[in-house]
Amino acid sequence: MMLNYSYPLYRPPSEADSLIFQVTLGCSFNECSFCDMYRSKEYSERPWEEVKAEIDIMSKTLPETRRIFLADGDALNLETDYMEKIVKYLYEKFPNLERVSCYAMPMNVLKKTPEELKSLRDSGLNMFYLGIESGSDLILKKVTKGATAATIIRACKKAMDVGYILSCMIILGLGGKTHSKEHIRGTAEVINASAPHYVGALTLYLENGIKEEFKTKFGEPFIPVNDSESLDELEDLIGRIDVKNEVIFRANHGSNAYTIKGTFPQDKQTMLDKISWMKQHPEVVRPTGLRGF
């Protein structure tokens, strides 16, 4: 017997082989103008009886599970005691479990006290996926992110200070042509200040259902960047990232026109050299029809 998910269901690409439990449905914020992932759902928190029953079933069906992702987009919004109860029960029922992860909005990380975050970490919740999107306060406001560069940096540091593995996402093209330079400059500053373990670069891809909302909230004519300009942004971003600790960088998401990966600081020049090569070989671009957010 498999789980009866409430669709749509999303998880990070790196959780492709993970078992997913929906402990919340939807997103408690649900106002980011670039994201339509949970627009069809009203946010709710699933009761213990339902969550426990699903864990019991899957512990018998997939007892060798090593990784679990807690969905939907807002699992960290749960009360700490309840989240801790779920995580502890997962480790009790899955003896080979190595990692439990979830999405984490900056505001939800900041709502938790350091003691609460540490308690959750000690119980076995050990990885967060946090959206930076942009490091420009102007753009963050235009896309109604509900965060500033400063609060994003604080959230990243707060999570890492108590031992979480942190994977962050940024969105190429989010400022359009008009604010491209500011977008990349600010984003690099946030990455440099927070130095998360992982950074993934996506490219803005507006679904039809939110395209008009995005343009309206942006507050001025939005001119999308083209593939060449997106590659320029990627080059500028990589050139500006300056970290001492290792940061694993990936720009291989399905939304991207070009694919590149490496680890800062040691692979920085190699990635820049590859981008220079890509500019001479536009045939390596991913076809538009094969892209998606």
Give the quaternary arrangement of the chains: single chain
Distance between the termini: 30 Å
The helix/strand class is: alpha/beta
Q: Got a strand count?
A: 10
Q: Helical stretch count?
A: 10
CATH superfamily: Aldolase class I
Named at the architecture level, the CATH assignment is Alpha-Beta Barrel
Q: What best-fitting shape do the alpha-carbon axes yield?
A: globular
Order of helices and strands: EEEHEHEHHEHHEHEHHEEH
Major sheet summary line: 8 strands, mixed
How big a fraction of the residues is strand? 15-25%
Mean pLDDT, rounded to whole units?
95
Unreliable stretches (pLDDT < 50, length at least 5) are: none
Task: State the name of the first-level CATH class.
Answer: Alpha Beta
Strand order of the largest sheet: 1-4-5-6-7-8-9-10
Explain what this protein looks like in three dimensions.
The relative contact order is 0.11. Strand 7, helix 7 and strand 8 form a beta-alpha-beta unit. With 293 residues, the protein is α/β, with parallel strands linked by helices. Helix content is 40%, strand content 17%. The chain has ten helices and ten strands. The radius of gyration is 19 Å and the shape is globular. The strands form two sheets. It has an eight-stranded mixed sheet with strand order 1-4-5-6-7-8-9-10. It has a two-stranded antiparallel sheet with strand order 2-3. Helix 6 runs parallel beside helix 7 (180-194) and helix 7 (180-194) packs parallel to helix 9. It has one domain (13-286): TIM Barrel, CATH 3.20.20.
